[in-house]
Design a protein that fits this description.
243 residues, alpha/beta, Rossmann fold, 8-stranded mixed sheet
Length: 243
């Protein structure tokens, strides 16, 4: 798995979108047994924190110790450095395995073998994520131009899976219906630009060119943003299945 976020772990933790409470409500209902969950590629623990409210135990793993150093803490969350494709967990350990905004980086066949090994026979496997936020037509156009034209050449090939809403990833499970969800919030322009700065393509751009394109983006957005936070919605990408 590629690790693009260790170097910007603090920026990532401060500025990444969360997930709606409705996602956790769905997971709670879809998992009648809630002994232990695995939040794979936990990042800064957003999903782990939500799961800790109704799972007895949450195992949260990532390959980035820097990310986990900024993670949400709770007594029933255990963080550890583990590769998604080869963990140290015992077989049939989990009632839920979830991967949020990360599965596009995985080696699918190897990870799915690990899912089948560690998920309980009646457990649930979930892939979640989010796509570009919807804000206003003027803001959305500037962001789309930035995403496609400014940092566009610096996206890794795996980004295509997010653009395709995770609909084209391999998914060798008995798929079940999932709700349509969105993460809604009010963000300042500075918060939005902090999020954009955490993008892997933005990090690649900065490394390759020695300059940060985000300040120019902020100046382009300022006239159409105004001085107040704006409401935005990140469409949630969601697939779920059983063995």
């Amino acid at each position: 798995m590629k690790d693009f976020f260790s170097a910007s772990a603090s920026v990532y933790a401060l500025n990444r979108p969360g997930y709606p409470q409705a996602l956790f409500d769905y997971l709670r209902l879809a998992c009648p047994r809630r002994e232990c969950a695995w939040d794979c590629a936990t990042g800064n623990g957003q999903i782990a924190g939500g799961l800790s409210a109704f799972f007895k135990e949450v195992k949260a793993t990532d390959i980035s110790e820097q990310q986990m150093a900024h993670a949400y803490q709770a007594p029933n969350i255990s963080y550890s450095k583990e590769a998604a494709e080869q963990s140290s967990f015992a077989g049939h350990s989990f009632d839920l395995i979830i991967v949020a905004q990360a599965i596009h980086w995985f080696r699918f066949d190897e990870f799915y073998k690990e899912v089948r090994r560690t998920l309980r026979p009646d457990g649930l496997f979930v892939v979640a994520g989010y796509n570009m936020a919807v804000i206003t037509p003027a803001v959305d156009k500037i962001l789309l131009d930035f995403q496609n034209d400014v940092v566009g050449p610096y996206w890794d090939p795996e980004r295509i899976y997010i653009d395709e809403r995770y609909e084209t990833i391999p998914f060798p499970f008995r798929e079940i219906d999932t709700p349509s969800l969105a993460y809604e919030a009010r963000w300042s322009l500075e918060r939005l630009c902090g999020y954009v700065e955490s993008w892997s393509a933005t990090r690649h751009y900065i490394k390759a060119r020695g300059t940060n394109p985000v300040p120019a983006l902020m100046e382009a957005l300022r006239p159409v943003w105004g001085n107040e936070p704006l409401p935005l919605a990140f469409p949630v990408l969601l697939r779920a299945g059983r063995l």
